[in-house]
Amino acid sequence: MDGPGPGNASMPRGFLLQGFSEFPHLRPLLFLLLLAVHLATVGGNLLILVAVASAPRRPPMLLFLCQLSAIELCYTLVVVPRSLADLAAPGPPGGRPISFLGCALQMQMFVALGGAECFLLATMAYDRYVAVCHPLRYAAVVTPGLCARLALACCLGGLAVSVGLAGAVFHLPFCGSRLLVHFFCDITALLELACTRSYADELPLLGACLLLLLLPSLLILASYGAIAAALRRLRCPRGRRKAASTCASHLAVTCLHYGCATFMYARPKASYSPRRDRTLALVYTNVTPLLYPLIYSLRNREVTAAIRRVLGRGRGRRAQGLREP
After folding, report:
1. Would you list the DSSP string of 158-219?
2. What phi and psi values does residue 181 have, to the nearest 5 degrees?
3. At 109, is the secondary structure helix, strand, or coil?
4. Which of the listed CATH numbers 1.20.1070.10, 3.40.50.2300, 3.90.1150.10, 3.40.50.1970 matches domain 15-299?
5. Segment 226-260, tens digit of pLDDT
6. Dihedral (CA of 42, 43, 45, 49) sign
7. Rounded to whole angstroms, how far apart are CA atoms 111 and 208?
8. Other CB atoms within 10 Å distance of the CB of residue 287
9. Sign of the C-alpha dihedral, residues 185, 191, 195, 200?
10. Interval 82-96: pLDDT, tens
11. Contact by Cβ (8 Å): 295, 253
């Protein structure tokens, strides 16, 4: 085994994912729970995608929601299938191997999708701002062309930040046992394995947090500050409630996403706790993606109507099939 010093830094030869190998008796139960949550998450997001695609008219908020569901679907597919495979197959107690390139790609895709979601939530906040504060100009401002450009910018922004962050993290020298106390290649777990212990190692992560968390959150706060001021000026309680309800689902998803991401990544390296962070990661990579389609299907009337159309069409086809001889 390599020594801990920087001089014994390893060549790119992969890592070991510990996963939950130290809990062999809990692994079958954990596998079944994660599989059920994963199937529900995939099914919920696919249902929203199909419902939006089959809707006769698709306002900009539905298009943004469709992109959000696609991002969440890919987000879970980057992490969960590998975790389920590791839980299902009995592996060595020291961890299951993952190649250097595979680990880098997993981390990069995870950050890219999470970053795209951060930018998309800021874009959706701007959409809500125009809808509430400038309702008469909404159709002229938020055009399909603008929606397409904003959606592309969100994806490219997340991709650019993730490539820079992955390059900075995997340029660090790694030494020791190469054991990641995690079930996927997360940034905090990788920084724990870095041979160096200077604050400069945290600068790429700090820069990514500024771009992916601070900048979009400021735009969201500005949008909702203007929305709150507009709601105060409304004299009709019914109009105030209707305008507030259009923002409720987006605000709930934004608080979930930014709350988890800020707590996990916007803190000093000295406060990292590998096993605690692994448990928290289990929640935000499995539970929160399941909550998003539930929140939107319950709070957004257009989504609810689109889902009912899809489900009603499916029931109608089944009934027609039963009537045919």
Report:
1. HHHHHHHHHHHHTTS-B-TT-EESSSS--HHHHHHHBS---GGGGHHHHHHHIIIIIHHHHH
2. -80, 70
3. helix
4. 1.20.1070.10
5. 998 888 887 777 777 777 777 888 888 899 888 88
6. positive
7. 9
8. 13
9. positive
10. 999 988 876 676 778
11. yes
